[in-house]
Amino acid sequence: MKYLKKSLDGKVPYYSKMITDGIILNANESAFETPKEIIDILKEKLDTIDLRRYPDTDNTIIREALAKNYNIDVTNITCGVGSDQLLDCIFRSLIEDEYIIACNPTFSMYKEYASYTNGKFIDIDFLPGFIYDTKTIIKTIKEKNPKLVIICSPNNPTGSYMEREDLETIIKTTNGVVLLDEAYSEFYKSNYDLAIKYSNVIVLKTFSKAYALAGIRLGYAISSSDLIDTINICKPPYNLSTLSQLIASIAIENKDLYKENIEKIVKLKDELYDSLKALNLNVNKSYSNFVFVKLNDRIFFHLLENKIYIRRLKYNDEFYYRINTGTKEENEILIEKIKEAL
Ligand code: PMP
To answer: Using CA of residue 80, residue 83, residue 86, residue 92, what is the dihedral sign?
Structure first.
């Protein structure tokens, strides 16, 4: 890459193989398809949209639907092409050589976006059992005065959850912004209202997980209108397609259709945790739709041979695996194949 700028030396483009066949448990997607009723409403509404026109750059229909859902003002919401795009906008609009604090391990893209903006990243390890080390987070905030503190709760990949009191202590301690990434909060608890209560908090959410809509690429941020304006400075014009805006607004207006599936996913994840624990595997308690487990290479490759896809991650020189729950049948096959390779 001879034209790549110096500060990005050594980077490689993001790569994720498109898998369509097998048991796909590696991307934290929903175990269940988008509810049929959502697709039926979409079909009815398709005739009403004019694809010749650019989409609404203000994303009005989806922001209004979200504002109604959360009982907040539309000025407290902005939307992106996945929450990924909003992370990019947040880093580009906030960070220039400043410190960023996040826990380790966490969602890998934070570090990538930080590197594009020369952010200085500080990793805070978890306590044993991947429990948040709030004391060390607070101590580091006082020492380093970071511009951004990122808490992913429930955390990808460990499934850890940070209690509201700890979040509030962090929010009150820092002079900077707290980014609370709640990509998985529908599977446990949300603290989105902290973004309205405090002026230095951004809560990030997505339609990719609990709403079974990863294919439309739509995420959103809730924050003070001042921080929303700040993020929007780096938001590209017409970022969301007309179709994505329409589908997400249908989903949020009919969110009751998801309730049963979300409950099932949580139950299936707990059962998956129990089954792995029963095999004496080192698995972490998770508040999300996935589990985080230590497996040996033999198991991983045996699963691959059987077209069962899980996510491999290196942490402290050891391999851990993040496995999102599949359906009951998929989980049964997974456990059976793990047993074969134990
Ligand atoms: N935050 C977290 C914690 C994630 O795990 C993900 C996706 N894996 C994202 C943000 C980005 O999600 P999306 O761009 O699909 O909204």
So the answer is: negative
